[in-house]
Amino acid sequence: MKKMVITGMALMAMLQLRAQDTTTDSTGYKSQKLSIDEINLVSSYYKQDGNNSAVTGGIGTEKLTDVSNNIDVTLIKYGKSGKKHTYDVALGVDFYTSASSDMVDLAANSSASMSDIRIYPSLNYTVENEQKGNSFGVGVSSSTEFDYQSFGGNISYGKKTNDRNGEFTAKLQAYLDQVKIIKPVELRTGGESYPTSSRNSFSASLAYSQIINKDFQVIFLADVIQQQGYLSLPFHRVYFTDGSVHQELLPDNRLKIPIAARASYFFGDAVILRAYYRYYTDSWDIKAHTVDLETPVKLSPFVSVSPFYRYYTQTAAKYFNGYRAEAGDADYYTSNYDLSRFNSSFYGVGVKFTPVKGVLGIKHFHTLELRYGHYSRTTQLSSDIVSINIKYK
User: Fold this and answer.
1) Residue ranges of domains in the chain, CATH in brackets
2) What integer best gives the mean pLDDT of the chain?
3) Reported pTM
4) Helix %, strand %, coil % for the chain, to 5?
5) Residue 15 has pLDDT above 60, yes or no
């Protein structure tokens, strides 16, 4: 019932570890057979608690747990012309339980809303001319759970500068979704058949990365996202000041514009400082700032630790009101505290093992990474996430 995105493992996009001054020689022999370049296995356990559930109108439990498992396989081959072909195949499966979603039926007695499984496969293909420094990619994806079905597609283009120290990338994405209209139990008038409504998202992303020198790298990002269709969540309640209960109602369009910058600075071979800043604004009057810092430190040639901290602050959407705070004279209304004014912190640490002979002496067991993060925000929501990433290469 609750659509989720786990972000603990995606706290910061990794920039390459060191600037490379030499270009790839595409004139030499390269295998034309499709071969496995890398396999990533990521599992995480997420748990949250709070007392501002939108399902019960801005009050009530927000307890939720999620177990997520993802496998990502990268395959490469070189064609006869020397172009590099990369295939990225991924499959994710989440199993979650949600006490708040269970309250759609105001029973909390392990109803059908209590738990769900989300399955999300994806396939991306990229062809790169390493000699000319350009690339072209396409991809498809889907996500399926009981009340939500999403299909996505993307197309991308990249071009490196002549000295290979800079790269421009552009990406277009579209998500065509169907939402089951599952109303709170007291607002239903028919049986258990649920109609569906469409929700579509279109985005354009631009990025430019630049290696300033062997110690300093930066990347600038900008996005424009347009959402259209049914943007409410049908099982979210809103209680008016007179005590009456209503279904959340939000506009059928939303424009989002985030812009961001990342930087990595290398202090010798042992310490890296990664910094990230993002400004966000949208047509619902939310404005937000994100500041993110991560500092990987090598304890040995094979072990590193990465403490991180992220601070986030946002203003409230113009349609938000808390429990029994909506007078009933507005065209749109919500009591979802994700759209309220709040500040949040996310902090934790990662530990990465990359022994030369492989983890536990297994040759292709290239990397083992463990991460823990704690999240808290001023609406009294808190969560913890533990994740493990195993890389075969």
Assistant:
1) 36-392 (2.40.160.40)
2) 90
3) 0.88
4) 5, 60, 35
5) no
